[in-house]
Inverse folding.
């Protein structure tokens, strides 16, 4: 036992010595290797140091290049190369597969949404068609139902009843009862067969009664007036025919909403289900096809929305829209059929696989963003799609009215409408519950009439505000900065061509459906005229002439109240987007000035627009708006005519603005 | 009474290999743990500064990089503008006090630097430091 303990202690002692020695040598090596730990008394002049640094950098760069070249030329055995390639692809395949499954789910959601919207548009056009068909029949029915009552009365009259064939009125009443039963069936649920039966029954009644001539005498007229009230119920029911299509479409729509399902085309679905035996190139192809499907789905939804707004059909709406563009690109290196033979080729393959993974990841991000936007807008969209309950429409009407009728300095109060609209859409959890909204629900007229008690006017001291206003995007009640603040930080994208039409807000461009800072879109064509103007101003833009420029979001921060758009051209459309933060939900006064026309959305709700050419003015327009607690998004669409294009957006609490 | 010699020979367990193995494993894990450090840095030449305040390195700092061409990196990985917004928004919700180290190349577009700083400021991320190269500090 003694021996064991002695041996162990001796062994431990040896290890301790070894560890201590290693640590000492390791420490010395670190001090030697890490230059910052060495005390170096070398003194250089700055120029000499820079020259030496540059030389070292150049030498290091040359060595790196040489090593890279040598590495790239190093040969690989076929088996080893295959193994390495498989390893690289296996790792990324799992990630790409996971992302693609997510994209697929999002696509199915987007497609279901598109189908719902499409159904809305189709149902609306069906309703219009039915109304058109039913209109003459309805007029005939009104007369016919009156006549049936007359005939019944006539038949009962001893003297006059002789003029009516026996049992004729009774049979007509039976037909009428059947007709009314069919109407009730139709009320309970839409059924095309029942609708056809109702139409047939109505036509049959009209035909039968139109053959009968009613007598013309005073006694008959007097008694006829007495029984008119009795026919009123029947008339009302006949009138329901007019409303039926609207109800039908609403019910039909509710059903299709539940049943709307999006199916993925078979080849892509198959690829996504069996990813293990698919190459990265095949998965990338599937991703590109999915992107195309998503774009088509988004375009379809936008076209349906536009068709609903403008009352047109889908196809004509589609022609007015700019289609979504593919953000993914082909990667030729992915398609190389052979196994890499050198390290350089292997690196290229690796880069291609990484690029494919990056593109799929971006597609996933974009799709998720679309899905989030869809979720937040879903209830708002459904409100837009059913005009009878649309507060959004009310807001739209209000701003149309405001743009045409408001006086300079007059404040348009849309805060109450915004509060209601946000609580309806569920985007505002901080605000008061929709008590006011419930009062207004289903009554767009009352929503339109929801105006402030008295007109309020703001007089801005332009010089004072320009001198004292500060930039800011975070607002809290305890902030030491009081008074007017201006928004100086924006993401800007443009120009798109507006053909000089400064009222064309109805044609939405991509930023209205999604804010994707990584997106690239096709914009206005760069003409020789633009090039000449640029050249006169000494600007070099690097665009290819007569080809549409590629647009991306640009971050800009303005050093003054007025924000100028970059890359300004005439007859063009720009979008500006920013977020602002509020510690608590509250109403604020905003002052907007634009050159030329502009439209403003806050949290997706339109709050202001003007039209035509106008110079910038600090107090061009005032709104009282509602901001929810947390982050609020602001989107501005700026339409430029000739020359300058700028915007100012100021915010102030209503109680602080003294003139208010 | 005499006892046989064989009964006195006790079996001894040799501890030496076990001790060797234990120490080797200890050193292996020690070195492996020291070496395993996530590389968040990107290849940039930081701007020079002579007045920067030296701050102790924070291993937990989130590193946002901006390359010479203005591309963004988040924790050493390339990041799109959307991703950068998303990551910083999530960070502001979970750890608003966490340090953010901005590694921007000296030649990076200044607009990109402002953009990152603006996102941080807007999202309430106040603990932002900028990595610089101090010639004096690095020499002494």
């Amino acid at each position: 036992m003694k021996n064991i303990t002695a041996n162990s202690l001796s062994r431990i002692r040896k290890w301790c010595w070894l560890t201590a020695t290693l640590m000492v040598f390791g420490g010395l090596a670190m001090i030697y290797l890490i230059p910052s730990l060495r005390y170096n008394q070398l003194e250089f002049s700055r120029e000499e140091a820079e020259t030496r640094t540059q030389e070292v950098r150049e030498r290091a760069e040359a060595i790196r290049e040489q090593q890279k070249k040598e590495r790239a030329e190093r040969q690989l055995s076929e088996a080893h190369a295959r193994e390495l390639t498989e390893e690289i692809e296996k790792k990324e395949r799992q990630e790409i597969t996971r992302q693609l499954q997510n994209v697929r789910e999002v696509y199915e959601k987007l497609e279901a949404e598109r189908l719902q919207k499409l159904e809305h548009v189709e149902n609306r056009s069906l309703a219009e068609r039915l109304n058109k068909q039913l209109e003459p029949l309805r007029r005939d029915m009104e007369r016919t139902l009156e006549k049936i009552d007359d005939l019944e009365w006539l038949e009962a009259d001893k003297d006059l009843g002789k003029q009516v064939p026996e049992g004729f009125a009774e049979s007509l009443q039976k037909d009428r009862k059947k007709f009314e039963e069919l109407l009730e069936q139709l009320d309970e649920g839409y059924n095309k067969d029942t609708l056809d039966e109702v139409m047939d029954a109505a036509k049959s009644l009209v035909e039968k009664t139109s053959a009968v001539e009613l007598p013309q005498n005073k006694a008959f007229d007097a008694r006829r007036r007495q029984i008119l009230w009795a026919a009123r119920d029947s008339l009302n029911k006949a009138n329901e025919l007019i409303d039926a299509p609207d109800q039908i479409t609403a019910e039909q729509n509710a059903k299709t909403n539940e049943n709307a399902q999006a199916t993925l085309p078979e080849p892509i679905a198959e690829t996504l289900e069996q990813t293990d035996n698919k190459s990265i190139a095949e998965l990338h192809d599937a991703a590109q096809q999915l992107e195309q499907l998503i774009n088509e789905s988004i375009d379809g939804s936008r076209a349906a929305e536009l068709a609903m707004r403008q009352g047109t059909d889908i196809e004509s709406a589609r022609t007015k829209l700019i289609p979504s563009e593919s953000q993914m690109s082909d990667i030729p290196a992915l398609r190389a059929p052979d196994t890499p033979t050198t390290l350089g080729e292997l690196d290229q393959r690796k880069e291609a696989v990484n690029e494919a993974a990056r593109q799929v990841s971006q597609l996933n991000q974009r799709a998720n963003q679309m899905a989030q936007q869809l979720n937040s807008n879903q209830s708002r969209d459904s409100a837009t799609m059913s005009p009878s309950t649309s507060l959004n429409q009310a807001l739209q009407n209000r701003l149309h009215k405001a743009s045409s009728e408001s006086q300079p300095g007059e404040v348009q109060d849309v805060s109450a409408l915004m509060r209601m609209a946000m609580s309806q859409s569920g985007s505002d959890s901080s605000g008061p519950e929709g008590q006011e909204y419930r009062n207004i629900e289903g009554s767009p007229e009352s929503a339109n009439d929801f105006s402030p008690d008295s007109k309020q006017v703001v007089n801005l001291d332009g010089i004072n505000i320009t001198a004292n206003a500060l930039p800011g995007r975070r607002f809290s009640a305890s902030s030491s900065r009081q008074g007017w603040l201006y928004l100086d930080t924006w993401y800007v994208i443009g120009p798109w061509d507006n053909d000089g039409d400064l009222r064309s807000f109805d044609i939405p461009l991509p930023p209205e459906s999604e804010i994707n800072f990584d997106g690239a879109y096709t914009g206005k064509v760069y003409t020789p005229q633009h090039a000449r103007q640029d050249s006169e101003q000494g600007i070099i833009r690097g665009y290819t002439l007569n080809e549409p420029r590629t647009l991306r979001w640009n971050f800009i921060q303005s050093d003054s109240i007025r924000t100028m758009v970059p890359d300004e051209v005439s007859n063009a459309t720009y979008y500006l987007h920013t977020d602002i933060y509020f510690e608590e939900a509250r109403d604020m006064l905003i002052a907007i000035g634009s050159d030329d026309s502009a439209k403003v959305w806050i949290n997706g709700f339109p709050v202001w627009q003007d039209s035509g050419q106008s110079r910038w003015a600090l107090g061009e327009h005032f709104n009282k708006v509602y901001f929810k607690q947390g982050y609020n998004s602001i989107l501005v669409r700026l339409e430029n005519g000739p020359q300058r294009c700028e915007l100012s957006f100021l915010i102030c609490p209503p109680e602080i603005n003294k003139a208010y | 009474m005499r006892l046989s010699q064989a009964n006195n020979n006790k079996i001894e367990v040799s501890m030496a290999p076990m001790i060797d193995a234990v120490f080797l494993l200890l050193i292996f894990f020690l070195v492996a743990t020291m070496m395993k450090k996530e590389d968040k840095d990107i290849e940039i030449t930081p701007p020079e500064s002579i007045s920067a305040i030296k701050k102790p390195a924070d291993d937990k700092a989130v590193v946002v990089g901006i390359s010479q061409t203005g591309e963004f990196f988040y924790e050493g990985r390339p990041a799109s503008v959307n991703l950068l917004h998303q990551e910083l928004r999530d960070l502001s919700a979970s750890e608003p006090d966490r340090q953010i180290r901005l590694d921007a190349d000296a030649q990076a577009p200044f607009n990109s630097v402002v953009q990152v700083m603006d996102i941080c400021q807007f999202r309430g991320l106040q603990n932002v430091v900028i990595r610089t190269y101090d010639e004096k500090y690095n020499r002494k």
About this structure: The radius of gyration of chain A is 37 Å. Residues 271 and 282 of chain A are 8 Å apart (CA to CA).
